[in-house]
Amino acid sequence: MCLAVPGRVLGIEERDGTRMATVDFGGVVKEVCLEYLPDLKVGEYAIVHVGFALQRVDEESALRTLELFENLGLLQEEFGDPWEQAAQADAGPAGEVRR
């Protein structure tokens, strides 16, 4: 599943002519393109989908959504380690790897 997730901008820099941000998604930090929201500032929240900040959102809405996603296990699904997820999917009932 690929969600649009709210995140808080921690820092902004320009890389090769593209405005990029370091964004915190409830403890998971990722790099995000700001080309669709060129006036977004450090400390503000935005909805991010596939690495692009798409819409500014207020802090209360962002935190509420992050809490809901966390409770539903969607943040782990969205941002978890794909190698760990694949290993868990291959593990048998006692943690044994299926072949």
TrEMBL record:
GO terms for molecular function: carbon dioxide binding; iron ion binding. Signal peptide: none annotated. GO terms for biological process: protein maturation. Pfam families: HupF_HypC. Transmembrane segments: none annotated. Gene3D superfamilies: 2.30.30.140. Belongs to the HupF/HypC family. PANTHER family: HYDROGENASE MATURATION FACTOR HYBG. This is HypC/HybG/HupF family hydrogenase formation chaperone. It comes from Streptomyces cadmiisoli.
